[in-house]
């Protein structure tokens, strides 16, 4: 393998896809380079549960054969990707980052896998994740902790830990994670990437591991907004196999990037989200707002109604649903859960059914109230993704007592509110904290405003280079 | 609202649902998490903002959430 082809792994997905199409190099060469890097970094970062070398090379060769015969498979033709270990492929193992489901072989294939394969993507393996996606740090007592490539003493964020680490480490160009409380946005933020929690119902969940059926969304992680838009275009849209998917026409996300933001009002919350922000994080956020202002946006103050309750409302739905899905295993195999995950999976056992149903029942009203109040004043809401410096793996390890639980609460403080509301939220890299770990801001919009969020983020990335910074893994 | 679940209550609730191996540490942590969630729901269901349309939830349809997402959708032309 030449050094030249390995260098392509550091470049944006959309550029590499164009060069693959032009025949500058082959998918087999690129995929082999990705596998070499994956093997080299796995001992340090532990972002894979399984590097699936044979299947990857077979997929790459098939992509090359199709290209040689004049066939274009789609917008991801020949591009090596890897995804969170929770999307089923018929006949192939999916462990869900757990011991309970270790060796599980599903009979069905997730729609998201089908769509990425139909667009020509090559899948090089299954990425590490928090056990059953129940936790925001990236610890995994069963498969080993995933580590942040910017500094392996720090958390990679969770639950899509491997997605954040593998994309940041330039092993793959993008990845599909999932988001029930911040699980794509946190790994994106702490790894210097863009990560999207789409509107609930935008992307099919058929064939994916469930955690909370009222809240779960698949979510892409990428290095640039344009790369993320490319992946979202492939994933979004109605799926007959998932009756919860929206039937709306999917907009052209890549075309939407070019519109500029001159008339956009960016809302900065006057309550909750601006509280408890660390000084070094605030510096990065303030600088990001200044860039958006320079791009022509107007910055306006906005009060977010019920903000202090939204994250807990999210948990009032998530916990009982998770307890329902895990109830049998919690009874019969409690020893196969790590302690933190067992607590989270079992918390719903103590939430009365009527309370859970009230949280579900009031959800449309709370959503309506939020949208009508917030988006009367602005077009896009701007918050921190993570208001504190990235914590270390040791600080957030089991046994950390009250400090541990305080940090855990901080990790999802700004992300979980929007899972309850079902609205889209995008994390965008905007600098580094005092320890040299990435900082991200979060853009939130009305339902199905992904194109608008991507446009604002694209305008920001056109003026900054945070998304081009790469870690040196040590 | 000052309601607080205790670890002991959690153990009883869990045992009633067939979970017999919760230790006191896990039960205390579950109690803390559940207490926070229950308090938040109680605070919001009694807030004037949420009650303005209908003072109770008797005629509310939870499936309305998907409809509301569609109705409130963004209108950006691309």
Record field, number of beta strands of chain B: 0
Q: How many strands, which pairing sense, and closed or not: the largest β-sheet of chain B?
A: none
Shape estimate of chain B: elongated
- Rounded mean pLDDT of chain A is 96
Strand content of chain B: under 5%
| Tally of individual helices of chain A | 17
Q: Provide the low-confidence segments of chain A as ranges.
A: none
How far is it from the N-terminal to the C-terminal residue of chain A, by CA?
A: 22 Å
| Biggest beta sheet attributes of chain A | 8 strands, mixed
Largest interface: A-B, 62 and 46 residues
Query: What does the radius of gyration of chain A come to?
Result: 21 Å
Total helical elements of chain B:
4
**Helix percentage of chain B:** 55-70%
Query: Over all CA atoms, what is the radius of gyration of chain B?
Result: 19 Å
| Sequence of secondary-structure elements of chain A | HHHEHEHEHEHEEHHEHEHHHHEHHEEH
End-to-end distance of chain B = 47 Å
Based on the model shown, name its key terms:
heterodimer, A: 474 residues, alpha/beta, 3-stranded mixed beta sheet, 11 strands, 41% helix, B: 78 residues, mainly alpha, 4 helices, elongated
Polypeptide structure, described:
The complex is a heterodimer of chains A (474) and B (78). Chain A contains 17 helices and eleven strands. By secondary structure, chain A is an alpha/beta fold. In chain A, strands 4-6-5-10-11-9-7-8 form an eight-stranded mixed sheet, sandwiched between helices. The mean pLDDT of chain A is 96. The longest helix of chain B has 22 residues, at 24-45. Classes of the chains: A alpha/beta (474), B mainly alpha (78). The interface between A and B is large, with 62 and 46 residues.
């Amino acid at each position: 393998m030449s050094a030249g082809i390995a260098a392509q792994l550091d470049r944006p997905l959309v550029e590499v896809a164009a060069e693959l199409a032009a025949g500058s190099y082959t998918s087999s060469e690129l995929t082999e380079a990705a596998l070499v890097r994956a093997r080299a970094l796995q001992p340090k970062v532990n972002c894979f549960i399984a590097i699936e070398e044979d299947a990857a090379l077979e997929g790459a060769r098939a992509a090359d054969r199709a290209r040689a015969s004049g066939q274009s498979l789609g917008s991801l033709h020949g591009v090596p990707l890897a995804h969170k270990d929770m999307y089923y492929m018929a006949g192939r193992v999916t462990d869900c980052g757990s011991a309970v489901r270790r060796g599980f072989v599903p009979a069905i294939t997730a729609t998201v896998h089908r769509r990425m394969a139909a667009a020509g993507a090559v899948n090089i393996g299954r990425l590490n994740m928090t056990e059953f996606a129940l936790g925001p740090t990236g610890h995994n007592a069963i498969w080993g902790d995933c580590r942040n490539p910017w500094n392996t003493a720090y958390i990679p964020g969770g639950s899509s830990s491997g997605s954040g680490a593998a994309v940041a480490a330039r092993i793959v160009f993008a990845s599909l994670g999932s988001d029930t409380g911040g699980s794509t946005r946190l790994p994106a933020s702490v790894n210097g990437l863009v990560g999207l929690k789409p509107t609930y119902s935008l992307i099919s969940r058929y064939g994916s591991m469930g955690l909370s059926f009222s809240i779960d969304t698949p979510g892409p992680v990428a290095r640039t907004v344009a790369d993320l838009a490319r992946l979202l275009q492939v994933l979004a849209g109605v799926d007959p196999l998932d009756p919860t998917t929206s039937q709306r026409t999917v907009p052209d996300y890549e075309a939407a990037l070019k519109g500029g933001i001159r008339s956009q009002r960016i809302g900065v919350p006057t309550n909750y989200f601006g509280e408890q922000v660390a000084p070094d994080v605030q510096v990065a956020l303030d600088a990001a707002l200044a860039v958006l202002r320079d791009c022509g946006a107007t910055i306006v103050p906005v009060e977010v109604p019920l903000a202090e309750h939204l994250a807990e409302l999210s948990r009032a739905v998530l916990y009982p649903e998770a307890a329902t899905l895990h109830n049998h295993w919690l009874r019969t195999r409690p020893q196969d859960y790590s302690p933190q995950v067992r607590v989270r999976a079992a918390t719903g056992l103590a939430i009365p059914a009527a309370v859970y149903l009230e949280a579900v029942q009031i959800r449309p009203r709370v959503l309506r109230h939020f949208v009508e109040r917030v988006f009367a004043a602005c077009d896009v809401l701007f918050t921190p993704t993570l208001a504190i410096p990235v914590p270390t793996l040791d600080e957030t390890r089991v046994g950390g007592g009250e400090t541990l639980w305080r940090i855990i609460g901080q990790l999802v403080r700004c992300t979980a509110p929007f899972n309850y509301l079902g609205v889209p939220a995008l994390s965008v890299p905007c600098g580094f904290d005092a320890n040299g770990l990435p900082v991200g801001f979060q853009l939130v919009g009305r339902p199905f405003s992904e194109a608008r969020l991507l446009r604002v983020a694209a305008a920001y990335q056109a003026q900054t280079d945070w998304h081009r910074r790469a870690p040196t893994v040590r | 609202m000052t309601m607080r679940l205790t670890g002991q209550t959690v153990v009883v609730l869990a045992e009633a649902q067939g979970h017999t191996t919760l230790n006191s540490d896990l039960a205390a942590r579950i109690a803390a998490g559940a207490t926070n969630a229950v308090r938040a729901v109680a605070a919001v269901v009694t807030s004037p903002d949420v009650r303005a349309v209908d003072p109770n939830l008797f005629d509310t349809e939870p499936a309305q959430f998907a409809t509301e997402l569609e109705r409130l959708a963004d209108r950006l032309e691309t």
